[in-house]
Specification:
This protein is α+β, with helices and mostly antiparallel strands and 311 residues long. It has 2 domains: 124 residues, Aminotransferase class 4, branched-chain amino acid transferase, N-terminal domain (D-amino Acid Aminotransferase, Chain A, domain 1, 2-Layer Sandwich); 155 residues, D-amino Acid Aminotransferase, Chain A, domain 2 (Alpha-Beta Barrel). 25% of the residues lie in helices and 29% in strands. It has 7 helices and 17 strands. The longest helix is centred in the first third of the chain and has 15 residues. The protein is globular. The chain binds 4'-deoxy-4'-aminopyridoxal-5'-phosphate. 4'-deoxy-4'-aminopyridoxal-5'-phosphate binds next to helix 5 and strand 14.
């Protein structure tokens, strides 16, 4: 793979990544008052690069930023264009992961120090790095975390807020220390919420089930993609309903969905095999369908792909 330029979009300019820095006084660093996205760009059949569902990711970024009173300063089309421009300047020709971050920066003159969302300036930065797709990865083993997902009256879990990821990091840390790959977090009612950075689906008595947004989870864009593909391509309706821990552990198939993990089969939960302990048939079909879609091999979903264009 040819070298790519280490660049970021930072404070309104494209700069060398090493120069995209923040002072220690940055409000978001001290209080977790930032919002972010994780977006993927995939090499297409024709060799070009395309961003997958960039508009939907940036719509969610703008929704998240409203919650924290962060002024991103650009609309969705402009954010998509900045992302494509970053890809072109980097010279990206392989699969990429894109990380936009909008955050609270510095107290405005006259603002008293303290935890606050007003009287503070805002900033936007976008960086990107190479990240291959995991098509051939086998199943993963997950723990049920002792950490619960916070209720939305405690933290706005539907917004992708940096500070909230302390909860996710603690869950991952606990799971890894116990020898698992990832953790599934229950919500305050003891129902399945989501995994550390992905949503949860289960095949229960032939039905595809995923928890509703009221289960205190981030409404994943991959979750939406999977619901759409299951209906359109496989003729399987997804049932949005609460999923108990028992139901999950006794499901025929379980898989996680997220931009980073894409669709990954779960073959063991808390030391017990899921089904036969191997990726299930519906999971495998959805995985191959998903990979066709993100690579532009399915004309029905080309509208989800935004070509970056030649450098
Ligand atoms: N839940 C959490 C907590 C996440 O961090 C992510 C990753 N953004 C997801 C779910 C999946 O969301 P998406 O499919 O939009 O990447």
């Amino acid at each position: 793979t040819p070298a790519i330029a280490a660049l970021a979009y930072h404070d309104g300019e494209f700069v060398p990544l090493a120069e995209a820095q923040v002072p220690v006084t940055t409000q978001a660093l001290q209080y977790g008052t930032g919002v972010f996205e994780g977006i993927r760009a995939y090499v297409q059949e024709d060799g070009g690069l395309a961003v997958f569902r960039g508009h939907d990711h940036y719509r969610r970024l703008l929704r998240s930023s409203r919650t924290l009173r962060i002024e991103v300063g650009h609309d969705v089309p402009r954010l998509c264009e900045l992302t494509a421009e970053l890809m072109r300047r980097i010279g990206a020709m392989s699969d990429m992961y894109i990380r936009p971050l909008a955050y609270k920066r510095a107290l405005l003159p006259g603002s008293p120090p303290g935890v606050q969302l007003t009287g503070v300036s805002d900033a936007l930065t976008i960086n990107a790095f190479r990240m291959g797709s995991y098509t051939d990865r086998g199943g993963i083993r997950v723990a049920i975390s002792s950490w619960r997902r916070p209720e939305s009256v405690v933290l706005p879990v539907r917004a992708k807020v940096t500070g909230g990821y302390v909860n996710n990091a603690l869950a991952v840390d606990e799971a890894r220390a116990a020898g698992y790959d990832d953790a599934i977090l229950l919500n305050s009612r003891g129902q399945v919420a989501e995994a550390s950075t992905s949503n949860v689906f289960a095949v229960v008595r032939g039905r595809l089930v995923t928890p509703p947004v009221t289960a205190d989870l981030l409404e994943g864009i991959t979750r939406d993609t999977v619901v759409t593909l299951a209906t359109d391509v496989l003729g399987v309706e997804t049932v949005l309903q609460d999923l108990g821990r028992d139901e999950l552990c006794n499901a025929d198939e379980v898989f996680l969905t997220g931009t980073g993990v894409e669709i990954v089969p779960v073959t063991e939960i808390a030391g017990r095999p899921v089904g036969e302990g191997v990726p299930g048939p519906l999971t495998k079909t959805l995985m191959s369908t998903y990979h066709d879609v993100v690579r532009g091999r399915d004309p029905r979903y080309r509208h989800w792909l935004q070509a970056v264009g030649p450098a």
